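To close the chapter, one final illustration. This time we ask the reader to focus less on the individual chains and more on the assembly as a whole: which components sit near each other, and how the overall shape emerges from the parts.
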Amino acid sequence: MKLIKIDKKSLKEGIDKLKRTHSVFGPVREKDEFEFKALGDADMPDFSFSNTRMSPKAIVYPQTQLMFTYSLNDADDDCRILKEVPMDERPRAVIGIRPCDALAFPLVRRNFDTPEYQDTFWVRTYEATTFVGLACNEPCATCFCTSAGTGPFGKEGLDVLLVEDGDDFFAEPLTPKGESLLETAGWTTEAGGGAEEKITSMAAAANEHITSAVSFDNIKKREILELYDAPFWEEEAISCINCGTCTYVCPTCWCFDIQDETFGKSGVRMRNWDSCMSPLFTLHASGHNPRTKKHERVRQRFMHKLKYYVDKYDNGIQCVGCGRCVRLCPVNIDIRSICNKMNNFDPEACKCEVASS
Amino acid sequence: MRIDQIITETEDKSLKTFKFVFIRPEDEEKFAYRAGQFAELSVPGLGEIPIGIASSPTEKGFVKFTIFKTGKVTSHLHAMREGEIMGIRGPLGHPYPWETLAGKNIVIIGGGFAFTTLRSSIIFMTDPANRSKFKDIHVIYGARSPGMLLYKEELKSWAERDDMNMHITVDGTDDPDWKYHKGFVPAITEKFAPPADADTYAIICGPPIMIKFTQPVLDNLGYSHDNIIMSLENRMKCGIGICGRCNIGKDLVCKDGPVFTLSQLNAMPKEY
Amino acid sequence: MTGYTEKIREIAARLLTEGKVDRVIGFRKGTVPMMNQPHYVTSPAMAVELIWDSHCGLNLANYVTDSKERIGIVAKGCDSRNLVTHIIENKIKRDQLVIIGVPCTGMVDRNKVCARVEGEITSVEETDDAITVSGNGFSKTIAKTDVLRENCAVCTHRNPVIHDEMVGEPVAEQTGVDAYASVKKVEALSPEEKWNYFEDLISTCIRCYACRNACPLCYCPTCFVDESRPQWVGKSQDPIDVRTFHLLRAYHCAGRCTDCGACETACPMGIKVREFTKKLNKDCFELYGWEAGLTLDKRPPLDVYKTDDPDDFIR
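The assembled structure is written out below.
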C-alpha cells in the first residue's frame, strides 16, 4: 500500500467527508488537558497534545454501558424478560490515537474475544472502528512503549499511521480498512520519493527520545508462586490508597461490574468499569474476601499485568507503556519500578539472606 | 424459567431447593449440562448469582438449584413464590472430569451446603444408564446437625442402596433415633475412605474449614494430588471469563474452573 | 522549608534508634517531577530516604487510621489538625503518636506550574521562595506564591497545632486572607448559574474515589457509595449519581474538614473538589464558630447538642 501525503490545510476537508459516513473521534482540549471526544460538525481534532489524560478505550468500551432493559410491571407480557439494548453499529473513525493506545486494543481483544465466548458489545464496536494513529515525534519522559511491545512509530493495532512533518502529514495505510478510510476522506495524493526514508529516520529519532524502559524477560521465566510470595509486595503497597485511578486511565485494564438499576417499574442491566483496587472487588456475599489486605490487591494488579497475562497469552505484558498511571497515581506508585523489581527478584538470594540472619 | 417448586431444605430455613422449568422447551435442550457445572441465576432488577447445578442431566424436564440465603439476590429468591419468572444463563464452567473418572472408584466428600453439585454427580452416576461406567462409589456427607442436611429423603434412599457406600454424618445431635454417624467429615473420611490407588479419585466440595482438615487425611491415606478433585467458588459477575473478577492467579474460576485438581491448586496463589 | 529534610531524617533516625516508634511516616522522592510518595521508614538506616519539599501535599494522617502501632508522623499545620480530629474520633490514641511538626509555607499545585510552561517538565529545583522547572529547551523560575495550592494560599493554620518535635521555627501565620472568598463568589451566583457551575465542576469525574481515599476523614468501613443493601448511590456515570457522591461526601466531612487539599491533589482529573467541602466549613464557622481540629479539648459541634444551638434554619 502506497504512502500518502496529506497537506495540513486539506485535513479539515477530509475529516468533514469522513463525518458523513462515520462517527469521528479525535483529541480535543478539555480545560487544561486533552481527551478523545466525538467530533461535532464544527469540531476538528487538536493534535497539539502529547497524549490524552484518559485513554481512548472508552470509544470502544464506555465507562457505563447499558446492556439490557426489563420491565417489572406484571401487566406487561414481557415482564422480567431481559431485552437487549440496540447497539450503535455505525462505522467509527478515531483520528490521532497514539501507537501505545492503539496496541492496547488487540491486546485487550484477547480477553473479550475468545474461542468459547465473545463479548459482542466490545467486539462489534471494535470491528466497526478504523484507527488512524499519530506517531509521536517527541515522546514523554514517562513513556516506555519501546520496551512494552510497540514504539512511538508503532503500527500494531492501527489501520493508518500519520506522521507529522512540517506542513504535511504522511499517511501510511496499514490495512484494507485504512486504505478505504483514506479514499473516503479523499486523501489520495501519493507521497513523493524519499518519504519512506524520512519516516524511518524520524522514527529512529523518536526512539532515541525514549528514556524509560522496563524488562520482563525474567518475570516470564519465574513460577507464579515465586513472584506471588516475594517479600517486597507489602513495602510497595504502603502508599497505595486503593482508588481506581490507575485502572480507569489504563488503556489495557478491562475489568467491569454488572449492575441492575430499577426506576419504578422498569430498569436496565448495565456494566460499569470496576477496579481490582477496590476492597469490594472480590468480596463474597458470605463476607469472605480473598483480598482483604491492601498489598494483596496491589500485588494482584501488577501480577495480572506483568505475569498472569504473560503466562496466559504468551504475547508480552498487559501494558503498552503509555505512562498514564505513572503520571496520575496520586501517591506515585510506579509500574516501571515494580516491573523492574519483579524482574530482578531472585528467590534464591532471599532464602540465603534468611538463612544467614 | 418459571419456578415450579420451592422446598425448604434446612430447619433454619436458610437453604431452599428451587425446581425451575424452562418456559420454552427448546431452551432446555440448549441448556444441556454435565454434573459439576454451574449457572448464573438472573433476577431482573436485582442481579445475578452463580450457583452450582444440583440436578443431574439424567433428570429431565427441570433443573434444580439449592440456594443459601445470604445477600440481596438470594434473599429475594427465597421470598419468591412458585409460578414466578426469572432467568438463567448457562451452563457455565467445567464439569467434573467425567472422562477421566470413567472406570474408576469415586469417593465423594461433601460438607454443608456445598453438596449441590455432588448431588448432581451422585444421581448421574447411579442412573441405570451410567452406573456400570464407574466402579465403587463412596459418599461421605456431613452437616452440623440432622436438620441442616440437604436432600434428606434422597440421602436415606442412597443409604439403602447396595451399589454405593453412603456415610452420612453430623457434627453432633441429641436425637436418640439418629441412625447414621456422628463426627466431623475429616474424621469419618479417615475411617471409611477407601485406600488410595491410581484408580481411586476423590471429589471434595465443602467449606474451607472442612477442606483444610480433610486434605491431610487424604494425604495420609496416600491419595495423590492429581486424584483429588475440588470445586471452588469466587465472587463472579459475567461467569464467562471476561469481567476479570474471579481470577486466582492466571486462572478464572468461572471459565478455567470451577473444578481443579489439587495439583493444579497447589501451583496457584492461595487467593480463595 | 529547605533544610527541613535534614531535620526530618535526624528526628526519624533518632526515634527509631531509641525505639520510641515502630515506624515513621513521611515522604520519599517521587519518580516523576513534582510528585512525592508517602513512605514508611522502619529502621534508622532507612531514615535517609525521607525528604521534604513543596510537593508534599498529601495528608499523611490518612495512613494512621485504626493503627495499633506507635507511629512517628510528619505533619504540617493542616495534617496536625486532622490528627487532632482522629484522636477525638477514636481513630488513634495520642500516646501512639510522635508528631514531627512541620511549619509550612504552602505546597505547590503542580497543575498550576504545568499550565505556565509549554512542554514537558523533566526536572524541578526549588529554593525557599521559588521553583525552577526545566524541560526540553526551556527553563523557567516561578515564584512559589504564584503557584501555591488554593487552600495553601488562604491558610491561616500553617503551624502544627500539636507536635512532639518541630523541624523548624514557627512561620508567621497569614493575616488578612479571606479563607472563604471562593465560596462567597459561588454563593453570589443565581441558582441557575450555581447549577451550571457545579455541573461543570464534576463533569470530568470518573468515580475513581481518589478524593475519598486520600482524605483522612473518609474511613467508614463501608462507604455510602459502596453499600448494596440498600444501595443508596448508583455506580454508573449517571450525573445524578456523580452529584450525589460529591455532595454527600462533603456533608460527611462537615465540621471535620481541615482544608488540607489532599482531595484536590489526589484527583487525577484536576477537579476542584474543595468547592463542596469549603462551603460546609464556612457554614460550620458561621453557625457554630467552629474550625476543625484546633484543640483536643472540644468536641466538634455536629457531635454535641446545646440548647442554644442556632436553629432558625429549621422550618
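Strands of chain C lie at 23-29, 36-41, 71-76, 97-102, 121-126, 130-135, 138-143, 165-166. The mean pLDDT of chain C is 93. With these observations in hand, you are ready for the problems at the end of the chapter.
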